[in-house]
């Protein structure tokens, strides 16, 4: 920024309290964001990031009633006194929950929505819509209805939608939550390009800090408990321990540097793995650390639990979504399913759980033909946690939601209370047991859906993006909790776009691309194969980049060493 302009977003002693809450969710916020700035807002789950975003785009208090005090001016508009419609001419928003923002009946209509209101000629409108769709790679799905899209595809539609809006402020609330790693990277590049071309002000709320920092941001605003804890340049913030202290995961290459005893400072430019300065002494520390670790243990043999043979399925005749998929999940395994948006990962789970019926192929569970059993029978053995908690939750109160399946089984209220409370405790939700689900943040709702599946004690659980939208503290809590369940004998399968999760928790990865299983390898080996990474829209971990920079080979082993140390450190911390 050359000259000091006046802020485009200005919070002055601003507080906001939802009518349904006893205390303010935002407390005395003072924050100025200037035109053309790129600001990343980070903070633990439930600290008020989405609430802050909702105040900027007019959702609060217009749609979610509440009391505001202090001042909030957005592009010259007194935001708390304006409607969401007035503010939509100034702020374009992409939300965490792509279902909640689909307005059109088809992808094309949805993207064109903003243009229809601007009375633009049809031809021009089609051209702009097609161009925006191409930018996010959804041009082949323009006539699809929302229910025919995968989670990540819906998120791409939302991104295309705001790109055709001509607004001065773009607000992204967890834009990467459902995107495959390669698309996540492209999205950040895209946001960056749009920002550069249009000089839009960009505010991004995101837990995937390392992914956002792939391109430069001007500042990171760290929030905690409704307040602003820090507002610093990325190089400054990443040199401190503030992220870790506030339950946010720092980029993995930085954690590796710290494990080796390297001191970080702003002058070392820690914001990017490519720019971080590693001098001779640091290099020695890293190499010594690498060689000081013990070798990994060999994996044990197991007996088959789920066997899938030649599974083929299409939602519509002539369009195959899954093609000839064969795989075996062993009892006691922890496996991840990874791959491109729309590759068929969720469809695979739906076939296993009985929501859809395959066109051909077999599914065996402990040797039994699963295709002969209905959904309810299968649910006793196989729990399925969907990607979007809002699609799973049907009860108003948290306790009732978790108790639902037990009540359907006819268990006594006493038995139900004991089991539900135990599960809520395990999932960190016990303090909220008497709350309505509507008062929870997205991440908290996700935990409710995990609890409602776990309460049935299934032998296999399939989780679709279990940690999407979770901060590092809850990520660790959920993953350590799933690991604990796994150690007790529950087999865990996770569909994930989080390459860190795959590396840290699942020794084996099943890779899907375009309806096929294209690899069944160790997680570290998958991320060592550039061709596979490209084919399945995955992303290399920054640990590989760091290992290569340090000349440490094989890089796969460097990653393995990091995972072992990290596991040790974190299991002591939990
Ligand atoms: N509509 C609402 N009504 C009442 N309370 C709400 C509402 N939405 C959010 N809250 C409360 O505000 C707090 C902050 O929620 P918010 O969604 O802003 O957090 P967040 O930092 O975005 O979390 P996450 O990272 O999990 O999405 C939560 O603890 C929640 O209880
Ligand atoms: N109900 C449906 N009707 C028609 N087509 C569908 C339906 N559900 C999904 N599809 C299509 O099937 C393909 C696979 O979708 P699926 O949800 O299994 O992908 P995914 O690998 O889980 O993707 P993501 O990573 O984005 O969640 C997509 O191209 C999608 O458009």
UniProtKB/TrEMBL annotation:
It is found in: Cell membrane. It comes from the Bacteria. GO terms for molecular function: ATP binding. The keyword Cell wall biogenesis/degradation does not apply. The keyword Aminoacyl-tRNA synthetase does not apply. InterPro entries: AAA+_ATPase, ABC_Co_transporter, ABC_transporter-like_ATP-bd, ABC_transporter-like_CS, ABC_transpr_CbiO/EcfA_su, ECF_ABC_transporter_ATP-bd, P-loop_NTPase. Keywords: ATP-binding, Cell membrane, Membrane, Nucleotide-binding, Repeat, Translocase, Transport. It is a peripheral membrane protein. CDD domains: ABC_cobalt_CbiO_domain1. Signal peptide: none annotated. PROSITE patterns: ABC_TRANSPORTER_1, ABC_TRANSPORTER_2. Belongs to the ABC transporter superfamily. Probably part of an ABC transporter complex. Responsible for energy coupling to the transport system. This is ABC transporter ATP-binding protein. It comes from Blautia faecis.
